[in-house]
Amino acid sequence: MAAAKTPVDVVVLAAGLGTRMKSALPKVMHPLAGRPMVAHLLATVAGLAPQRVVVVVGPGMEAVARAVAPLPTAVQADRRGTGDAVKVALPALADFAAGTVLVLYGDTPLISAGTMQRVLDSRAAGHAIVVLGFRPAEPGGYGRLVLGRDGGLDRIVEAKDAGPKLFASGLCNSGVMAFDAATLPGLLARLDTNNAKGEFYLTDTVAHARADGRSCAVVEGGEEELLGINSRAELAVAEAVVQRELRARAMAGGATLLDPATVWLSHDTTMGRDVIIGPSVVFAPGVTVADNVEIRAFSHLEGAKIASGAIIGPFARLRPGAEIGANAHIGNFVEIKASTIGAGAKANHLAYVGDATVGAGANLGAGTITCNYDGWNKHRTVIGDGAFIGSHVALVAPVTVGNGAIVGAGSVVTQDVPEDALYVERAEARTQIGWAAARRASRAAKRKAG
Ligand code: UD1
Ligand code: CA
User: Fold this and answer.
1) Which of 74, 96, 301, 447 has the fewest CB atoms within 10 Å, i.e. is most exposed?
2) How far apart are CA 427 and CA 424, in angstroms?
């Protein structure tokens, strides 16, 4: 495939309010696989190595500007339509007289790099405008593409402006359009608002280019990658598409997903080979899993790094900053936050380990709790190599348990424990032989006496 040799600038339109999302968050900030949908789109765009990318946002959309930084944004003061939005981006492309301007919509984030490239290749053949069309099962509100007798594109008619015959047409505008950069400013200058929405439609540029005798073309893409997200329901459909791709990628890389449909991944989840993932495991952003790791059912992981051979779960929770060493075991109802767990260490049941360093081969009994927060500040707990922490132990940080030390069950540890020492803190226990039997006998005697 001959790649387009002309330079490419990309304009991403994201100024719309997304009212149908019913959200305080701008539409393009709603996440797909753990990152804003606009970031998902921009990651694909980066693969095209464009010369410039500009994102058009609305007034007050600083969150979007931060999410796309260091890419520049242009602010569209009044949302007067997609044609106006592209006009707002032009100054950022000012010294750009030749090549292609590729316009993408921030709410259509699933489009693949390969499809974008097909549009650019068609543009490189000399068309003034190339539009990415598709045939959705329900054409509904999409703009309709009107072809000429030569098979070229004559005009685009918005659904609200289409008569019943055109409305019935299945060939729709995905929103992706590639323009000859030299003619784009002139075409935008001719747009007007004489239409059903009273907006400057970017799509009207096609009819103007045709009136000038320039050719316009359609490239067709698949429905799934061209899904426009306007509502929460459509967001859920898009998330399902992305998850399916991420699961396929993990399996292709050598991971077994016992029940793929129930495993939720993030865009940046990385997994080695011979990893086994049980059912209903959630990977929030920032998780790295090395080779030969097993993650058992119903575990939730975020910002965690797991070294080879470790076993996590079932029902484990790894929070940001959890680093699990090789062959370590983290069992059911164990929560780890901002802590390093040494190689071969074990915390198999019911524990909270926060702001701690746990040495290699250490063993944390059921109910081990690091008391890391005093109501104002967080403090660290250090547990040495090969140390043994008995069941139901509270470690009041800051505190250190030396290498090889043993802490007896039920202890509250408020002092550092030296290497190889035994620390036990426990109220005195009493056992009275026969006491229970004697009490039962005296009760029975009283009952008999009435
Ligand atoms: C648009 C197309 C339609 C196409 C559909 C595909 C036009 C006139 N219509 O319709 O042909 O089938 O997308 O999904 O282009 N935006 C701005 N500023 C504005 C208006 C919109 O930045 O003033 C942005 C929005 O944030 C959005 C994109 O442009 O990302 C599309 O706008 P939207 O209002 O959703 O257009 P549609 O009605 O879906
Ligand atoms: Ca839309």
Assistant:
1) 447
2) 10
